[in-house]
Specification:
The protein is built from 4 helices and 4 strands; from the N terminus they run H-E-H-H-E-H-E-E. The protein has a two-stranded parallel sheet. The chain has a two-stranded antiparallel ribbon with strand order 3-4. The longest helix has 15 residues. The two termini are 21 Å apart.
Length: 102
């Protein structure tokens, strides 16, 4: 969501595909973990930013490769794990246009 927010602020047209019915993923589970209560603030803030920037969000949607071919760049953010230790959010892959241009 942060990548979508920053890309939008830099003038790009962004679409978020979310396979569940709510944006947030693992961060929502972290909100209830003892000592991680500030994560609720961040989850609310980033979702507000997405709405305020009018980012196109498609909930309950898993796009196919065919669906994604219309985009110049695809960031596949598959999420992270929530636990007692700091776990980084890994962006699993960055798929560049078929032409090889960056």
């Amino acid at each position: 969501m942060e990548a979508a927010r920053v890309a939008t602020e830099r003038g790009h047209s962004v679409t978020i595909f979310e396979k569940t019915g709510e944006l947030g993923g693992a961060i929502l589970g972290c909100c209830v973990t003892p000592g991680k209560d500030k994560m609720k603030w961040y989850a609310d803030w980033i979702r507000y930013q997405i709405a305020d920037l009018n980012i196109d969000v498609k909930l309950c949607t898993t796009p196919s490769v065919k669906d994604l071919k219309t985009y110049d760049v695809v960031v596949n953010a598959t999420g992270s794990l929530c636990g007692g230790t700091t776990t980084p959010l890994w962006i699993q892959s960055l798929i560049w246009p078929q032409s090889g241009e960056r």
